[in-house]
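Could you join me in thinking about how sequence relates to backbone shape in a protein? We need material for that, and I hope you will provide a protein of your own picking. Once you have written the record down, we can walk along the chain together:

…
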Amino acid sequence: MEHYFERGKRMKVFISQPMRDRTDVDIMSERSAAIAEIKEQYPEEDVDIIDSFFKDVPHDVTPLWYLAKSLELLSMADLAFFCNGWSEYRGC
């Protein structure tokens, strides 16, 4: 696999994954598996995972709030990784 990022620069990765109606444990487990896969696919890269799992969010935020925050984080990414099933969830 080619090296797409300049040496010394860390590759920032945004993970998109289904979260609706899933427990935090399920989400974090799938996220850990995704991180392992990313590091396996890009063994030569220094990888930073962008934290897109929102904790301690006010209970009255709308789905649009989550979308806006996700887009903000995605704008900083060098790579977006989509977990299995992403296309079946509106928020992904």
